[in-house]
Amino acid sequence: MSDSFQLAEPDHFTAGAVGQPGQRVFYNQGRERRSLVTLKCEKEQVSALAEYLSGLIAKLPTGAVEGEAGKSALLEPVEPVWAAGSIGVGYDEAIGRIVVVAHEQVEEEEEGDPPAPEPATARFAITRAQATAFVERARTLVKAGRATCSMCGEPKDPAGHVCPRANGHVVHKE
Fold it and tell me: 58-78: buried (b, 16+ CB within 10 Å) or exposed (e) per residue?
């Protein structure tokens, strides 16, 4: 069973990627005091979280954007504590913060196996400024990936792309 984390007032919250486009590993990371929590994520999770946060920020009552966003780069060491399965978002009016809760990815149980323990969670209560910075950073990361095929929308590999919409008859080079 993995450790769970609760960062009530993180001073750092960001997304990042390590590796070359097409082979990058994505992370969400938060830090509060000396506790650094890095979660391995999928590119789609980072993108979806950014878009949801963007919509949530737009719906929140206008007011001063409290707090500083902090640095957007991943902090070293980039060592994930576990891989994120599902990610939920809410707004806690009592503390005026956006709450991001990630649940550990768990393997599906096979019939006859003993019940698996509850998945670990990581809870980050972030400021609007941190959420806004996260959205900008995540969008930049996603755009920095491989180019997509204009016909099918799939990513192009540097070696070429066999487009399923062309029935494999056309190989597009970058």
Answer: eeeeeeeeeeebbebebeeee
Q: Which residues on adjacent β-strands are paired with residue 15?
A: 28
Side-chain-facing half-sphere of 19: CA atoms under 13 Å: 12
Give the torsion sign (CA, 46, 51, 54, 59): negative
Which amino acid appears at position 25 of this protein? V
Cα(9)–Cα(92) distance, integer angstroms: 13
Residue with tokens 């995540």: 138
Beta-carbon neighbour count of residue 96 at 10 Å? 15
Predicted confidence (pLDDT) per residue in 97-147, tens digit: 999 999 999 887 777 777 777 899 999 999 999 999 999 999 999 988 777
C-beta separation of 60 from 39 below 8 A:
no
Distance of alpha carbon 7 from alpha carbon 32, whole angstroms: 6
Please report which helix (H) or strand (E) contains residue 47, including its range: helix 43-59
